[in-house]
Amino acid sequence: MSDGYQVATIDELEALPVDDEGLTWRPIRSRFGITSFGTNAYTAAKAGDRVVEEHTEESNGHEELYVVLRGRATFTLDGEDVEAPAGTMIYAQQSVKRGAVAQEDGTTVIGFGAPPGKPFEVSKWEAAFAAYGYQKLGDHERALATMRAGWESDPDHWAANYHYACLLALQGHGDEALERLARAVELDPRAAEQARGDEDFDSVRDDPRFASAVAGQA
């Protein structure tokens, strides 16, 4: 390796659990320090599991390219199914509703994304994905430090406040969690709707400040 390039295999990257169903996230952008586009990898443990969550990129404004690295997946793009064996590339504009299900165990998809014609900014969910992954692995100190750094990079972003509040609540820091949740709701009312059904806030749900934070946003 020199100052001008780095080399790594997919299996050398951190493998962080996304959910309890076996979906694994591998951070590529942060591993290499890429600043001009986002890129990460997702691996489904079993055939039939989701390997790309159903979503659009309208909130991020990203156009995306997906590359099936291993296995085989079925992508659903605006309701149309597309079979995607290893080596398939799929491009989707911001408004396209996309998602993918693995058809083989260990199917791995790499995603690339950036806003067309605009400077790239690291997506706010990236710190949250890493933090929740560390939390699931039992590395609670690293989880909180990772989410704190994500929040500090943009303390006026609703999602950064929301996910920081989640991690704080999960780790028993109730007062600070409620402060960050209230700020998230102040910045974007959808935080209140999301918090109502979010088990991460079970430790503070009976606190009157939780009810106050989510009140009047139905």
Layout of secondary structure:
Elements: E1 16-17, E2 24-27, H1 29-32, E3 38-43, E4 50-55, E5 63-70, E6 72-77, E7 80-85, E8 89-92, E9 98-102, E10 108-114, H2 125-136, H3 140-153, H4 158-170, H5 174-187, H6 190-196, H7 208-214
Antiparallel strand pairs: 1-2, 2-3, 3-10, 4-9, 5-8, 5-10, 6-7, 6-9
Overall description:
The strands form two sheets. The chain has a six-stranded antiparallel sheet. It has helices at about 30, 125-135, 140-155, 160-170, 175-185, 190-195, 210-215, and strands at about 15, 25, 40-45, 50-55, 65-70, 70-75, 80-85, 90, 100, 110-115. It has two domains: about 10-115, Jelly Rolls; about 125-215, Serine Threonine Protein Phosphatase 5, Tetratricopeptide repeat (Alpha Horseshoe). The protein is an alpha+beta fold and about 220 residues long. It is built from seven helices and ten strands. The longest helix has 14 residues, at about 140-155. The chain is about 35% helix and about 25% strand.
Features:
10 strands; single chain; 2 domains; alpha+beta; Serine Threonine Protein Phosphatase 5, Tetratricopeptide repeat; four-stranded antiparallel beta sheet; Jelly Rolls
Query: What is the approximate shape?
Result: globular
Under the CATH scheme, the architecture of the largest domain is: Sandwich
Tell me the quaternary state.
Answer: single chain
Estimate the strand proportion: 15-25%
Number of domains: 2
Give the ordered list of helices and strands. Answer: EEHEEEEEEEEHHHHHH
How helix-rich are the residues, as a percent range?
25-40%
CATH level 1 name of the largest domain: Mainly Beta
